[in-house]
Design a protein that fits this description.
single chain, seven-stranded mixed β-sheet
Length: 199
């Protein structure tokens, strides 16, 4: 009882929040990696407009491909009609499998998913999964050398708080735009080299 009492919310504070129209949000810490990954898959399945995912590493994407995680992206893009974007760090796999091979597999299985790679220096130690800009699940990367996602993942958090979700949306959009600028810069550099060679 004492613990419940200490963790409870004052009735007067709750009534004040309701009167002021404060938005109540669910924030959940998920210590079990299986439950965290299941929560991420659940919000992807519930998305109707947009799914944005920033993957912690190329190895994390490889693990998801192996465990059938692409089916959730395929369903979101084809059956649910959601716009799906996937950001993956550009890096070589520890076991020698190239990122390009994994990305080809993604494009074959999920042709409507928009995939971009970002520079090695921009990668994070978390996977961000955003659904409809209303929900997010953040999964920490504990050990990237593991072959199974459940062994590689650590703590996860889920939130539908507007401020939390909009902050992660901003992070994703910043990385997304940066990769677009980087691609344009590489194309410009290639065209410049070709012009010099022709000249």
């Amino acid at each position: 009882f004492e613990e419940l009492w200490d963790n409870g919310i004052e009735a007067a504070d709750m009534m004040k929040d309701i009167e002021e129209g404060v938005d109540f949000a669910d924030i959940e810490v998920i210590p079990n990696p299986r439950a965290g990954i299941a929560k991420a898959q659940s919000i992807i399945s519930s998305a109707r407009k947009e799914v944005s995912i920033l993957v912690s590493s190329a190895n994390a994407l490889r693990r998801q491909v192996q465990m059938g995680g692409l089916q959730f992206l395929k369903n979101a893009s084809e059956q649910q009609g959601a716009k799906v974007r996937l950001l993956v760090p550009d890096e070589n796999e520890n076991d020698g499998q190239r990122l390009s091979t994994i990305l080809e597999e993604v494009k074959i299985q999920c042709p409507q998913v928009n995939v971009r790679t970002m520079e090695k220096g921009l990668h994070t130690r978390i996977t961000i999964v955003l659904a409809d800009r209303k929900e997010c699940t953040i999964i920490e990367l504990r050990d990237d050398t593991k072959d199974i996602s459940y062994s590689a993942a650590g703590l996860s958090t889920y939130s539908n708080s507007k401020s939390t979700v909009s902050s992660y949306v901003s992070i994703f959009e910043t990385f997304w735009k940066q990769t677009e600028l980087y691609e344009k810069l590489k194309l410009h550099d290639k065209m410049q080299k070709e012009f010099i060679n022709v000249a």
